[in-house]
Design goal:
- The structure is a single chain.
- The chain is α+β, with helices and mostly antiparallel strands.
- It has a domain of about 130 residues: Histidine kinase-like ATPase, C-terminal domain (Heat Shock Protein 90, 2-Layer Sandwich).
- It has 21 helices and 5 strands.
- A 5-stranded antiparallel sheet has the order 1-2-3-5-4, sandwiched between helices.
- Helix 1 runs antiparallel to helix 10.
- The longest helix is centred in the N-terminal third of the chain and has 44 residues.
- The radius of gyration is 26 Å and the shape is elongated.
- The two termini are about 25 Å apart.
Length: about 600
């Protein structure tokens, strides 16, 4: 393969990866940020009981997140595939189905939070000492369950609409609202744990208002409509999203076990230290989740396009640049452990301070191991290998950590819990590598083998031609390459000539009008595939959105000299489909 071509494609994928990553990480950090604010106000104005209430509520929050992850991960996979296949109507149907399920589920959780708070608190592990605080916190948080899940789902679709900035604005507003009401309810009105919960709920409503308002605008591509709901995709959503939900459910169960073990064999300070650790760790691990989620979105699109090379380059980007980001994140967590611990506990000589500081430092090691299972689990989810993803979820969720906690915590207390978590993440990371050996029944030799791409996936080297264009000078040469490729495949002369002509015209139009619209460097990624009786031309670029079909419809039919090239392409192509996928123009033509 041409090394220059591969480097150019890798740069396109890398730019797209880093364009999507910040919004995904911010979105996944929302719960952590809100919990941190609650914890800061709670530890400084309410006391240790409030901190323990937040920690005990965490498994219930994670159970809600499990359903959210089913919807989010499955809709990302399905929408990615449908976009890769050029089926936008299906994408809209999945969007409507996702919101409908989220609303129905959250309404039920809200009702349960109001009617049975004490029952839920007891199930989660609340003791007689902190039962009132936990139940009050459950009621306060119940007000915000609906906007929490709806906001997360809508935020995940914002990037398809090229509206990532709106997510940042919503996040900023959410944090301000939560911090303001936390201080008002807890410090001024002395509402205790319930005030902390209500403040978080109000911030969730503020977030939903900003994120959701875009989808009411006329320019939004995705619109909610009961008529367009793809009800038949519900089974696929459950199947695809179940591994993500399973991991969250098992993690919630694991959290309940941890709380109960610490309550029985340690102290209330140990429970508070674990709660504080979770708040800080969720914030830092959002980068791990953001990397794997971004990878799942991009892998789903490449899988829908049957683009073998893009999948390989994507995984190379994630495993190198993505891991470097996690390495930096882990270093920051370790170095800032004292700062974060001090935010919650000002007495540096207290036992809870020492336990929390130690736990946050352990967390930096957890990140370096968790990233491997997270990356490969999301990748295999995009490829539809649900069984292996379920194995990842069970192993990371409870298979290793559950039994170890039961053995080590009674003997070692909170230190035993940190060792338990390290072992669990390490074993799951080893499985990520072992699966490739199991798949091939030998040691893989290339990256394509390590990511277990079957030999028959996508168009073979002989069936496809990949080219990257950087300038107008390369356009003509590309046309000649396409002509030679088609001739070499035995395609009739007339169709081979038309294929080269269509590609030359479209590529020249992109270079002429797209490359100079801003001060950024651009490239055109061209793929020619001979499949069956068709010649399929796929042209992908990262310039400003441009739909040649819409342009053709707007042409002045009285002036036949204008845009004659586009007119010619529209007549020659058997079919033409345009999409803007995650900030990339993708034009697919059949000749």
């Amino acid at each position: 393969m041409n090394k220059s071509l591969e480097r150019s494609d890798a740069q396109i994928i890398s730019r797209l990866f880093f364009r999507l990553l910040p919004a995904q990480s911010f979105m996944l950090a929302l719960n952590g940020l809100n919990n941190m604010i609650d914890g800061l106000v709670g530890s400084n104005f309410v006391g240790a009981k409030a901190m323990s209430a937040i920690g005990i509520y965490t498994p219930l929050q994670m159970a809600c997140m499990a359903v959210s992850m089913i919807l989010m991960s499955s809709s990302q996979v399905l929408c990615g595939r449908y976009m890769g296949e050029g089926r936008m109507e299906k994408t809209r149907g999945v969007f409507s189905l996702t919101l409908t399920i989220a609303l129905a589920f959250t309404a039920a959780v809200t009702l349960a939070s109001f009617l049975f708070p004490w029952t839920l608190a007891g199930f989660l592990g609340a003791t007689q000492e902190n039962m009132p605080d936990v139940s009050n916190y459950i009621i306060g948080r119940g007000i915000g369950v609906i906007p929490l899940l709806l906001g997360q789902q809508l935020a995940s679709f914002l990037q398809l609409e090229r509206q990532s900035m709106r997510n940042y604005v919503a996040t900023g507003l959410m944090l301000v609202v939560n911090a303001g009401f936390d201080l008002f309810f807890a410090a001024v009105l002395n509402m205790g744990a319930m005030g902390l919960g209500i403040a978080t709920s109000l911030s969730n409503w503020a977030y939903l208002a900003v994120v959701g308002s875009f989808f009411l605008k006329p320019e939004a591509t995705l619109k909610y409509s009961i008529r367009t709901i793809e009800w038949k995709e519900m089974a696929s959503m459950v199947s695809i999203g179940f591994p993500s939900a399973l991991l969250v459910f098992l993690t919630a169960l694991r959290g309940t076990i941890f709380n109960r073990m610490l309550a029985a064999h340690a102290t209330l300070e140990a429970v508070a230290a674990l709660a504080t650790f979770n708040m800080v760790y969720i914030l830092f691990s959002a980068m791990v989740s953001g990397i794997s989620t971004t990878g799942r979105i991009l892998a789903s699109v490449s899988y829908g396009e049957e683009d073998r090379r893009s999948l390989t380059l994507l995984m190379r980007t994630i495993l190198t640049k993505g891991y470097a980001i996690v390495l930096i994140t882990a270093a920051l967590e370790f170095l800032l452990a004292g700062f974060f611990t001090g935010l919650y506990y000002s007495d540096h000589t207290s036992a809870v301070y020492a336990m929390t500081l130690n736990g946050i430092r352990w967390g930096s090691l957890f990140l370096l191991l968790q990233i491997f299972s997270s990356i490969f689990s999301s990748y295999y989810q995009a490829l539809g290998r649900i069984k292996v993803v379920n194995v990842f979820s069970v192993m990371e969720g409870i298979a290793v950590m559950g039994p170890l906690a039961i053995v080590l915590v009674p003997r070692m207390g909170l230190d035993g819990l940190w060792i338990t978590m390290l072992a669990g993440y390490a074993v799951t990371a080893l499985f990520a590598a072992a699966y490739a050996v199991i798949y091939w029944k030998r040691l893989p030799k290339t990256l394509e083998e390590w990511i277990t791409l079957p030999p028959d996936f996508g168009a073979s080297e002989e069936q496809r031609l990949d080219i990257t264009i950087h300038s107008m000078d390369e356009v003509t040469a590309t046309s000649k390459q396409v002509l030679a490729f088609c001739s070499g495949r035995g395609i009739e002369r007339r169709r081979a000539y038309y294929s080269a002509l269509c590609l030359e015209e479209i590529a020249a139009n992109i270079v002429k009008h797209g490359f100079h619209a801003d001060n950024k460097s651009h490239a055109v990624d061209v793929r020619v595939v001979h499949k069956g009786e068709d010649v399929i031309l796929r042209v992908k670029d990262d310039c400003a959105p441009f739909n040649p079909q819409e342009r053709a419809e707007l042409l002045d039919t009285q002036d036949m000299t204008r845009n004659i090239g586009l007119r010619m392409v529209m007549r020659i192509a058997k079919s033409m489909d345009y999409q803007n996928l995650l900030g990339l123009n993708v034009l697919t033509m059949r000749v």
